[in-house]
Design brief:
With 184 residues, the chain is mainly alpha-helical. It has a domain of 107 residues. 74% of the residues lie in helices and 0% in strands. It contains 4 helices and no strands. The radius of gyration is 54 Å and the shape is elongated. 0% of the residues are buried.
């Protein structure tokens, strides 16, 4: 071969050099494509892992929601059971009230051994204090009627008393502030 290299013409040598350069360039391109394909394969693997992680995350979220849903269902069932129990107690109380009401007239008709109407005070005697005897002789006075027009006294209405207390506290604070402030 060394004899052939010596016998080559410059054109052949240039053609051989060009072929060698082209082979090197083609090898570089093939190597570059291989690297690109490797990167694309890694990206695809990364995408697969990301999708798997998202799927796992979604499954965890579904599991979390199903736990919340189960807890909410259990709570609703518990509240429904409590409501049924309360309804049952209310029905029982109503039944007892009707029975008591039905039996009440029969009880009221029976004479009682001691009734409050038959119990009286010892009365007024010779040893009773004169003022006590006068008070006992005085007929019972009915409670004081409301003033005409149905209006009550302001002191009988708690909302008026609360408002007056607030107003008094406000005035007290203003007066105290005026006393303690310095007007130089």
């Amino acid at each position: 071969m060394s004899e052939q290299n010596e016998q080559r013409t410059p054109a052949e040598a240039a053609e051989a050099a060009a072929a060698a350069d082209e082979a090197t360039a083609q090898a570089t391109r093939v190597e570059g494509r291989a690297r690109v394909e490797e990167v694309q394969a890694e990206v695809a693997e990364t995408d697969v892992r990301r999708v798997e992680e998202e799927r796992e995350k979604a499954e965890q979220e579904v599991e979390k929601l199903s736990r919340k849903e189960r807890k909410a269902r259990e709570k609703a069932e518990k509240e429904a059971a409590e409501a049924r129990e309360a309804r049952k107690r209310a029905d029982e109380a109503e039944r007892l009230a009707r029975e008591t009401q039905r039996d009440a007239p029969a009880i009221a008709e029976r004479p009682t051994p001691t009734s409050t109407a038959s119990v009286t005070s010892p009365g007024v005697g010779s040893e009773t204090a004169p003022r006590a005897a006068a008070a006992a002789a005085k007929p019972d006075e009915p409670p004081a009627a409301a003033p005409a027009g149905g209006l009550q006294a302001a002191s009988d209405r708690p909302e008026v008393l609360v408002g007056a207390a607030f107003a008094g506290a406000f005035l007290f604070a203003r007066i105290l502030r005026a006393i303690t402030s310095r007007d130089d």
